[in-house]
Amino acid sequence: MLGKALTTAAAGNAGAALGIEDVFSTWLYTGTGIGSTQTITNGIDLAGEGGMVWLKSRTNGSTHYLFDTERGVTRKLYTNDTDAEVADADSLTAFNSDGFLIGDDTSINYLNAAHASWTFRKAPGFFDVVTWTGNGSASQTINHNLGSAPGCIIIKATSTTSEWFVWHRNTSAAGVQQYESGLLLNSTSAQQGLYLFSSTPTSTSFTVSVNSSYTALTANGVTFVAYLFAHDEQIFGDAGDQSVIKCGSYSATGSTSGPVVDLGWEPQWLMIKRTDSTGDWNLIDNMRGFCVGGGGDDAELNPNLTAAESSGIFVTPLSTGFQLNTTDTGYNASSGTYIYIAIRRGLMKKPTNSAEVFSVYSGTPTDGTLVTTGFPVDFLYQKSTGVTNWRVVDRLRGYAATSANNQPRLQFNNTDAESLGSDIAFAFDNVSYKIGNGAIGGTSGISHAFRRAPGFFDVVAYTGTGVATQTIPHNLGVTPQLIIVKCRSNSSTDWLVKPNQSTADYLHLNFSNAQAGPSTTFWSSTNQDATNFYVGPSAATGAVSRTFVAYLFASCPGVSKVGSYTGTGTTLDIGCGFTSGARFVMIKRTDSTGDWYVWDTARGIVAGNDPYLLLNSDSGGSSADYIDPLSSGFQISSTAPAAINANGGTYIYLAIA
Length: 657
Fold this sequence. Notes:
There is one protein chain. This protein folds into five domains: 19-121; 127-229, no CATH class; 245-344, no CATH class; 354-450, Sandwich (mini-chromosome maintenance (MCM) complex, domain 2), CATH 2.60.320; 560-656, no CATH class. Helices cover 3% and strands 37% of the residues. It has five helices and 51 strands. The strands form 14 sheets. A six-stranded antiparallel sheet has the order 1-9-3-4-5-6. It has a six-stranded antiparallel sheet with strand order 10-17-12-13-14-15, with no helix packed on it. A six-stranded antiparallel sheet has the order 43-51-45-46-47-48.
């Protein structure tokens, strides 16, 4: 290990610690067609730091394109065949300080087609790109700047036809040294003795050798490129003690309740390959679809094929890794062995501006109306201002790529289990989502969108075990102050809310009831902390074999505030540490009955009447002067009812700047 936090000082960011969001991006885009260029702004500095861009059409059968800053713009390679590098002036034409520019090559910019891009920035502990020219010797040492021993190296001759050679720290073909074992990225073949290296790659170099079966990696005058992936270097994040990439292996079971792979964090990108037998290379990410099941599918592409994206239930993301949930032999053949590259889900940095993580929409949309958020949506709910149910979706449970009837949804105001529909939102991408045709399509309504971020908000899906104290890992990074849980698989269980950090008291989100408890059947007597929360065996929070989703909130300075207050019956200022007031406010009385009130600035938090909705009701809400603007947070009006401001009443709230 390098032993200290990697920083962006070289990029001019005053030495701020790097997170995964600084070095990796999955960016989805729609092709703009012949005669059109397209700028992809994903926040990755390729111009200054260097790296690699991988492009693939999702809707069309076409090649996987790879470009890198060492070989230069327009120089493309195809992972699914053996062709030499090709110069294409209409392909990737610029590496920018915040992304890249593509031309009108139809394979990567086909009109109205869906495309995916994966950008890997060069950074110690994560990724590096090196090139060399063979000198004809028996072995040749190639230096690199990965800063650690590689977990995986992918090599391709660029000036001649050749296979794509893959060395992985867990390949181990029979009869050869581990460093001589490998796979072919453009092939389904099992691991074999490729004789790629003459020794194990180190933190500074690798030594290529004369390959007996394929193009020698020292062939005189032949040019090569290598992509190096790190393994578990704990140098990222503010404390410099977190990894963002792991290269590992697992033994399969052939069961839909397959092996669990412990990474220590939730992945956003996986590449998996069977090694003991033939099988495709499989690539999944959480932007296209990497879900916990129940209606949402995983979206798969195959680096060795030109095939368009396909989908199915293959792998379940967990807060600390992933689990195989398929009998597909490409992932989980009985007694099969597999390698993987896993990349950590971001963000890793706490937000400093609520616009990075929260968005409000109010209006009268038509089906398919595009709502721009400026960030990838992880949690979304919608409600019309008429008498309709709330609709609740999240990226982890899955979302529809089109308006098809396969959107897993829940409803705040009732106990219904998760069901499928096309009436809320679909086609989530990096900066927007589309509104569906039911919840508010064609009528006036609101939509609130959230992004998962340390210190602000997290989503966790889990399966109950029925034990007295079940430990549920999370990635909030701080102790949750408000936890909302719903059983996904049963229609007779309430939404449970844990409003306190230090007790097992509870509220029901779908009721107006007062706070009750403590109940260690709902919440364990063990208090939540910065890495885990704890549930009991209740049908609503932890019953055996039932599936659940939890939404976790915390106070993030300048962004959000989870708090409480005591009513006065008079005007009451609620300071949240904001500078421009609250854009969102939720209030619930805890010592007596009271609805779950919600306001937002899109509909109006003003000095006069403010429209509100009730999370526990399908009503269209109303408008009254119950809250007012306050630069540091919000103000409770003296005219507010007992549900909001009774003298001596106790209340909890969530406010977002």
